[in-house]
Amino acid sequence: MSSHSLADGLKSVVPEITLLINTAPPDAFDVVIQFLSAENLPKMDPIGRGDPYFIAKIDDHITYTSSILPNTSSPKWENEEWIVRNIPATARLSVTVFDKDDDEPMDDYIGQFEILNVTNYHPPPSGHDILSLTGSKHGQFHLSIQSIQSSDETKHLPRYTFDGPCRYFRHDSFVVGRLTMLNADSVYSTWKIPMRRISVFFPPYQKQHWNKHYKAAQLIFGKCPASLLSKTTLKVTHKALYARTVKHSENGRLNSADDLWKYVFAHKTTKQIKPCIYTYIIDNYTWRFSETGRQFFADFASKHALLANGSEYVRYAGEFHVRPTKGWDHWNAYDTSNDSWEIVIDNGSGTYTPSSDLLKNLKELFLFNFPGLNIVTYDFKDPKLKESEEQLKAAIENYKDSSATIEELASPPVIIERL
């Protein structure tokens, strides 16, 4: 299990800054929270043990959701670390534990506990009692908290600034996959990646509101009854696409730009990087995206308002695709190193029409979160973007031919027994 000290974390982010802890105001603190384990969790289902996970909140301002650990009453989480900058001295932490239930509309509630002294934390020897709604003990939870007064650099960050680590969450839908048929696996994936310091690069006063002159956006955000129905449908679909399950979700930590290519963009079976176009939005804390296709449902499921869960504003939005740094003529789909690939990202969203003036902020945000990442930004009207997309189309056709052969080879043989 890896861990960070607050000082080391700051030095790795802003190496030229000397920490002047004594000059920080008394009500500004930075914390690193390590969520460790739980034990004696109750059995919530008649068959098997539980699939626990937890949701942590600081003052109801910022939220952390853990990975799901299957079939255990004594979960031990690894790499569940949360760095938050500039919280008040009076900050409270609440942790709610659930049992994931894929077959039910709602997960089972196990219990909750609260820490009232986050910035001056002393762990109880036996852990925190997890209390049910009736006050019964439903196990114990263990965590550690490092806190330090905010430095001159971090005290100027917005309150409750998320500062890592970056993690990815992939959600697979077979129902949508069968409708879109974007791949041989009939799987449609949506991605969510919490990003550090989004509000620094896209301050709240620069939020990109929905385009009141765009007819499709009017149908969603207007005042007529049809708009209410459209927004309700969006929210229901968003929840379905991003629903976490034990069997069909994956998450992990992204420690470098190489990890982004290896764990996010490479196919989980063939290990190839797939040429395609993604639709994305960036909200207050996360980068969300999914593949865009020509089929109706694929296009609908990738709409920016859907990814934004019907929000009237985003921090930024558009489309992006990946391409080899040396051109498609030198394409090796199995090479997932950062040196071999680059992200081409734009502001092409009719729903939110982000300002092209903020493309430099977009690039800086990605480089801050993934140092060394090769990234190119274009305004959606730039001819160079159209040229890159035309080259991508040819690569997509080549990928279809090669990936079909590879998936056939990777699939186990089907043996038919005669009766």
From TrEMBL:
GO biological process, one term: positive regulation of gene expression
CDD domains cross-referenced by the UniProt entry: C2
Name of the featured protein: C2 domain-containing protein
Domain C2: 11-131
Pfam families for this protein: C2 (PF00168)
PANTHER family xrefs: C2 DOMAIN-CONTAINING PROTEIN, FER-1-LIKE PROTEIN 6
InterPro entries: C2_dom, C2_domain_sf
